[in-house]
Backbone:
């Protein structure tokens, strides 16, 4: 990029960072004051040898966006099972200067796993799946290969959802000269896929190992049992019933939606090409907005409270949010548990659930909900370090609203 063009883009970015666009809530002086307090009082965090900790420093949101070199951000705050406000900042792409609006579409990254988990439980509820049955019972087009680790203990959907299946950690590269691999080729680790195959590496159920490919096995389970593509299953079973009109697992986006797509940016703030996989979708392939994810989390919380059952009934949501295991706090810098495809924070009235996400080369997503009160926060950013800023914003929002601390920093 030429120097003059770069300077012009940076000036535009600074201007955009102080701008927001039409929000969905009616004007409310009390709410507007809370938003101003949040924007002007971001609680900074720092990462040291002892992990993540809160500092005594406060900055403006604009300053933190600049500090983290994040071009843009969109968020939604839910209070009492209703969207209280949404707001956006910055630009979709530092080179084009196109502004982010509430209709801008972001990569949900691993927040997609919550969608996958809810779809699995939706069909468990219908009697088509069993969480504790050998997953190979349901797979038709491919099966998890048997080996010495699966001799006595089989891989189940519960183990896949909780990252205890024994399947590997892997990325999802492929040889672009040959073409895009099918989902089965990904699971086999077969050319043109360049990832590890979905082979069990230790006795299922004996330890926790975060496995994206485990969720792609769940994708194939749904496709084989329901007889439809995963994206269609998600649309018909979840997005359409909840009015999530800006959500899809189809990528690239349709032509009419591409102008709304938030582009990823690296740690220096430079725009990059999205690295979305087009066939292995369930682990991180969702494209959506904070407003749509707010509709999703509201439905889960209302079902948890016994007030709705458009997707899941109360007892099934409580299974979703039941703690399956405690995770080592040293792994993430704070204590948390694992439910069925969700992370769990706190206890009692402090209890919350959610899932962060981060896709290379630089997009992030955070969703946190307090099911007893019906409160939630969704933050999506198009910068490499958006997860750090999201943690700061989450802490600031919980402090401003006097909600339980999400992260015990």
Residues:
């Amino acid at each position: 990029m030429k120097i003059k063009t770069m300077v012009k883009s940076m000036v535009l970015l600074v201007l955009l960072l102080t701008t927001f666009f039409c929000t969905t809530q009616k004007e409310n002086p009390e709410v507007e004051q809370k938003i101003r307090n949040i924007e002007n009082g971001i609680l900074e965090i720092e990462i040291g040898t002892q992990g993540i900790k809160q500092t005594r420093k406060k900055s403006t949101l604009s300053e933190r966006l600049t500090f983290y070199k994040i071009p843009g951000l969109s968020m939604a705050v839910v209070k009492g099972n209703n969207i209280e406000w949404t707001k956006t900042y910055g630009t979709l792409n530092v080179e084009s200067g196109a502004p982010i609006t509430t209709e801008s579409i972001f990569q949900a990254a691993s927040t997609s796993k919550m969608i996958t988990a809810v779809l699995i439980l939706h069909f468990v509820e219908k009697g088509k799946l069993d969480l504790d049955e050998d997953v190979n019972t349901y797979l038709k087009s491919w099966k998890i290969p048997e080996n010495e680790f699966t001799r006595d203990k089989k891989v189940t959907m519960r183990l896949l959802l909780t990252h205890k299946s024994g399947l590997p950690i892997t990325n999802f590269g492929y040889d672009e000269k040959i073409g895009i691999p099918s989902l089965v080729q990904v699971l086999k680790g077969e050319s043109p896929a360049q990832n590890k195959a979905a082979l069990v590496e230790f006795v299922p159920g004996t330890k926790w190992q975060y496995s994206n490919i485990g969720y792609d096995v769940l994708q194939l389970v749904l496709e084989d049992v329901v007889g439809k593509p995963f994206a269609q299953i998600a649309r018909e079973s979840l997005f359409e019933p909840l009015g999530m009109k800006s959500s899809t697992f189809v990528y690239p986006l349709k032509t009419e939606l591409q102008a709304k797509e938030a582009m990823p940016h690296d740690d220096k703030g430079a725009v990059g090409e999205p690295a979305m996989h087009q066939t292995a979708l369930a682990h991180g392939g969702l494209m959506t907005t904070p407003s749509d994810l707010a509709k999703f989390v509201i439905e889960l919380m209302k079902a948890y409270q016994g007030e709705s059952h458009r997707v899941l009934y109360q007892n099934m949501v409580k299974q979703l949010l039941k703690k399956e295991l405690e995770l080592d706090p040293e792994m993430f810098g704070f204590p948390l548990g694992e439910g069925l495809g969700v992370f769990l924070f706190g206890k009692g009235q402090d209890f919350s659930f959610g899932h962060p996400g981060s896709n290379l080369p630089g997009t992030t997503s955070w969703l946190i909900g307090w099911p007893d009160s019906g409160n939630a926060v969704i933050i999506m950013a198009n910068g490499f370090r958006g997860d750090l800023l999201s943690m700061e914003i989450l802490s600031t929002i919980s402090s401003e609203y006097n909600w339980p601390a999400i992260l015990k920093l």
Observations:
- The longest strand covers residues 51-59.
